[in-house]
Amino acid sequence: MIAKIGRSSNLFGTLSYNNLKVEEEKGEILLTNKMIETPNGQYTVSQLSKSFESYLFANRNTEKHTLHISLNPDPKDNVSDEKYRQMAQQYMQEMGYGEQPFVVFKHTDIDRSHIHIVSLCVDEEGKKISDKFEKVRSMKICRELEKQFGLISALEKENKVNSPIFKAVDYKRGDIKSQIASAIRHISSQYQFQSLGEYNALLSLYNITAEKVEGELHGHSQRGLLYFPTDRKGKKTGHPFKASLFGKKAGFDSLEKYFESCRAKMKSLPVREKLKEKIVLILQSSNNEKSFIKKLQKEGIETVIRKNDQGRIYGMTFIDHQSKTVWKGSRLGKECSANAFNDKWNNSSKVANEEMKDQQTFSPKLTQDSNHLFNAIENSGDSFFESFRGILPTLSDENDYEEIEFANRMKKRKIRKRR
């Protein structure tokens, strides 16, 4: 079981998010602790928030007073409502929040049930409850609960080679937005990637693609990011969703900082050389593409291959689920680059460089479809920057023009600072 602890200054918003699941019949309230009860056991957000008012009025200096915890058992665990109640009560008690008012929501909007706990981290006197060694204590409690309730151990599972926790987006299951949100949250909190192309390669495993749109609106330069659900072949199967709907981590500013952070961390990762050796050895022992992919999958490594209409390979990306890292082939070395695999499988080492320029990539220029998107946003009544908080291009060729574009921007910024 995995516990995620979040804090914010927006109690009403946190309660609204969880109670909306109940209203949409995709969730229910399992437990309330020190909460004002209602005659029928049903609650509005206003009724729930009343139980916290005295604590908020007493609050002294704690800005992020709202506690939002999710407890996530393994998808294979069959947890009853009564077990969830006991687990939530015990978890809050041992974390030091047992005497606080809190409400436990069960969510069933994705393919695995889980619970969310909403409370406050300030006591009746307005003092902040200590959060020292919070993550360590939380992990210890989760291990205890796993043994007590017979759950699959998250610690043991981490040591094994695993495929992604979440299933790919399936438009037939409905509620596409929640499915995409779950995948993005999982990706952004678990995996390391250094570029927009690598991020999009990871998204493709979940039947999602992120598309960049930019152009002019009322004479002003605009740009944005849209997420689309796709089928297994990468074909779009639904309408786009704005990046802002999935939180700041889905936006360009946060992604850009995350890329820089990952670049610094991944340079010294020993897994890079180990992964390279493994790929080269498996390539040598594989007769064809399918054999190569299957052998890597057995090692917990996914392969995302990009080809043009003529079948020429122009992109190779490797996703190592064990180390939770994503690597463009050329980052690992020439032996793992797109050209190496194309020469091995397609026997086309003499393909002219001009062919690469003819690849079907997503142009950064404004297209007719982009005009329709901007007009739709304009007509919706939302301001553009409220609608779009980020930008991410779609998968491009191995040259990754978006990386080059990003590097050029960074150089220009350095030049400006020097001046």
Task: Explain the overall architecture.
The structure is a single chain. This protein has 419 residues and is α+β, with helices and mostly antiparallel strands. The chain folds into three domains: 2-158, BirA Bifunctional Protein, domain 2; 171-265 and 366-418, no CATH class; 266-357, no CATH class. The chain is 42% helix and 18% strand. The chain contains 17 helices and eleven strands. It has helices at residues 11-23, 45-50, 53-58, 81-95, 134-149, 154-158, 176-190, 196-204, 252-266, 271-284, 289-298, 329-332, 338-345, 353-357, 368-380, 384-387, 401-418, and strands spanning 2-8, 27-33, 66-72, 102-107, 114-120, 208-217, 220-229, 241-242, 301-307, 313-320, 325-328. The strands form three sheets. It has a five-stranded antiparallel β-sheet, sandwiched between helices. A three-stranded antiparallel β-sheet has the order 6-7-8. A hairpin with a 5-residue loop joins strand 9 and strand 10 (313-320). The longest helix is centred in the last third of the chain and has 18 residues, at 401-418. The radius of gyration is 24 Å and the shape is globular. The N and C termini lie far apart (53 Å). Mean pLDDT is 81; it is low at 159-165, 348-371 and 373-403. InterPro entries: Endonuclease_MobA/VirD2. It comes from Epilithonimonas zeae.
Index terms:
419 residues, alpha+beta, BirA Bifunctional Protein, domain 2, 5-stranded antiparallel sheet, 3-stranded antiparallel sheet, 17 helices
Counted beta strands = 11
- What would CATH call the class of the largest domain? Alpha Beta
Structural class: alpha+beta
Gap between N and C termini: 53 Å
Number of domains: 3
